[in-house]
Structures are given as C-alpha cells and as structure tokens.
Write a structure and sequence with these properties.
This protein is of the alpha/beta class. It has helices spanning 6-20, 29-43, 48-55, 60-72, 83-100, 116-131, 146-154, 167-173, 189-192, 226-239; strands at 105-110, 137-143, 156-158, 174-176, 184-187, 195-199, 212-217, 240-248, 261-265, 268-271. Helix 2 crosses helix 4 (60-72) and helix 5 crosses helix 6. The model has no long low-confidence stretch (mean pLDDT 89).
C-alpha cells in the first residue's frame, strides 16, 4: 500500500484537531498511517488519498466518525490506577462532601475508556456508603469512543487486569467466568447498574446542567495542546460545585493557568 502523502496527513491532522481537539504533529504521521491500514482494508480503499476523499465527501465524515475516533485515541487504563487518589478519596474527600451535603454526591469519570476507572470509583464509593448509611451518590462516566463505551458497559476483563484489586473487593464486586479456559472476570450487575455511561466529545458544549462534586479527568488532556487544555480545565471548573474536587493525571499540569482552584495534594484540586 502506498505511503500517506504529507498533503493527506495535513488534512487528517487539521480535521482531528478541529473535531476532537487532539494534536497530531508530523511526528505522529507514521503512527496514523499504520493505524488507518485496518480502516482502509475494511472500506476497500487502496490508498490513504481515497480514504481522505471519502472522509470529506458529503456524509462521509458522519458515517466514519466513530471509527476515526477509535483510530486516533489510545485507551490505556487500569483498576486503581494512581492509587493515592483513591486513598485520598476515602480519607479526605468523601468525609468532607458527606459532612457538607445532604444531597447525593455527584461524581464524573471524564474520559472513562474501557471502564476500569469508573468501576474502581464505584467500589470505593460503595465501601464508603457501607460505613456511612446517610451517604448517597450518582456516577456518570463519559468517553468520545462508542466502541470503547460498549466494552465499558459490558464490563468483562482479563484476570490479569484485576490483580491490583484488593482480594476483599474482588470477592465482592467481580464474578469469575464459569469457563475455566477463559481467565475472565465481569463486574457484578449491582455495580454495573450504578454507572451512567454516555458518549461525550469534550470539544462540544457539555450537555448536562447539574454541577459535579468530584471530577476525575486523568491522562486525557495530554493529547491536547496547551490552549485547548486551558479551555477544557475552565469548562471542568465551571461544571464543578463550590468546594468540589478535580483529579488530574500525574503527567498533567495546570500550573500557570488561572483557575478557581487550590491544590490539596499532588494533582488534586478543590474549587474555591
């Protein structure tokens, strides 16, 4: 198959930046070229130029949108990733919100990928609720990719993925496959039913009006340029309730950004 031309790459990167906010510098050309091969074969195209013409044809972009998102986004996630965040949640954040609020605490996992983060959050919230009977919560999880959201809703994971989950929580919240040949687990229905999964493109206005008390947006904005990161963090802050908490990834930073938050721990901020 012929190599992707610089002209076609320029069109792809401009479209991806405008539609998804994801920066695609020239250094990503080889990666994009390789990742698009499968789509070209599926659509019967012999070169990237044909795919480019299809994308920019009437109705082409709408039809191909979901598949293109899956090509350009990487969905790396784990249960209990960055464990100190969950420790802080139990020791400080939830007791504070529980004390201040009589209403249910609203939690948002933004950029939830295949579901490991929201299900980890759900386990932690359930454990806290057991010890604090007055505590109620709602949990929303969003991602731009419909394909990855299907996996999250299905909630089936290889056994190797749940090694980090404490044994007591494994027994309580995960079901082993009855087929011994398949080392898989599935999140129990009671936990699956607690998570409201929705598709969301961060570049569009947020479609909900209610304010969130906790937002986890970790290792998501690293794909955006600094200006896009800033405008996105501003949107998150305006969606956060007063005294609410924002958790970001350890490879991300809001330093130098004028935002209405104060740092309470590494990569954890409270709205002031």
């Amino acid at each position: 198959m012929p190599k992707m031309t610089d002209s076609d790459f320029g069109k792809f990167s401009k479209l991806i930046k405008e539609e998804f906010g994801i920066k695609m510098p020239p250094s990503k050309k080889t990666m994009l070229e390789a990742r698009l091969q499968k789509r070209l074969r599926a659509l019967g195209f012999s070169c990237h130029s044909q795919y480019c013409d299809f994308l920019f044809s009437p109705g082409g972009f709408e039809r191909e949108l979901a598949s293109l998102i899956d090509v350009v986004t990487t969905n790396t996630t784990d249960f209990f990733r960055e464990p100190k965040h969950f420790e802080l949640l139990l020791s400080t954040v939830l007791p504070d919100l529980c004390q201040r609020n009589s209403r249910p605490v609203k939690v948002w996992s933004a950029g939830c990928s295949s579901g490991e983060e929201p299900y980890t959050l759900c386990m932690v919230l359930e454990e806290f609720a057991e010890k604090n009977p007055s505590f109620k919560y709602s949990l929303m999880a969003t991602d731009i990719s419909t394909d990855i959201l299907r996996k999250a809703i299905n909630a089936v994971y290889p056994m190797s993925k749940v090694d980090v989950v404490p044994m007591a929580l494994k027994k309580k919240y995960l079901l082993k496959s009855k087929d011994r040949a398949k080392p898989l687990v599935r999140v129990v229905p009671a936990l699956r039913n607690k998570v409201d999964f929705r598709r969301l493109n961060f570049m569009e206005p947020f479609p909900f009006k209610d304010q969130k008390d906790i937002i986890f947006c970790r290792n998501v904005v690293i794909y955006f340029d600094r200006a896009t990161q800033y405008s996105l963090f501003k949107k998150f802050c305006s969606t956060l309730s007063k005294g609410g908490y924002l958790f970001i990834g350890h490879s991300e930073s809001i330093s130098g950004m004028e935002l209405p938050v104060r740092q309470i721990a590494p990569t954890v901020y409270q709205k002031v």
